[in-house]
Write a structure and sequence with these properties.
Radius of gyration: 33 Å
Number of helices: 4
Strand content: under 5%
Order of helices and strands: HHHH
Shape: elongated
Number of strands: 0
Structural class: mainly alpha
Largest sheet: none
Length: 87
Amino acid sequence: MIRRIQQGLGAEGITLSIAKLCAWFGVLRRTVYYKPVKAAPRIDPRFAEPIKAAPEPPTMARCDTNCDTDKALPGQIRAPQQEKTTT
């Protein structure tokens, strides 16, 4: 935006520095000069290999009306069932 204003004023024969325009509009100069560039993520292979080699964790199953509630998912310990007594 500031550069466009500077170019437009330059076409009309008025020369102003970017520093002066930034001060007038209340914009930091570094936002005009420097554009942020996001670096590509760097992956450390000593951490990436063990994570790739790890098994996938079991997903939580949604229990509908047809679900057996007394069966445990793989890797889970089933709670002991209490005996039903009839009186």
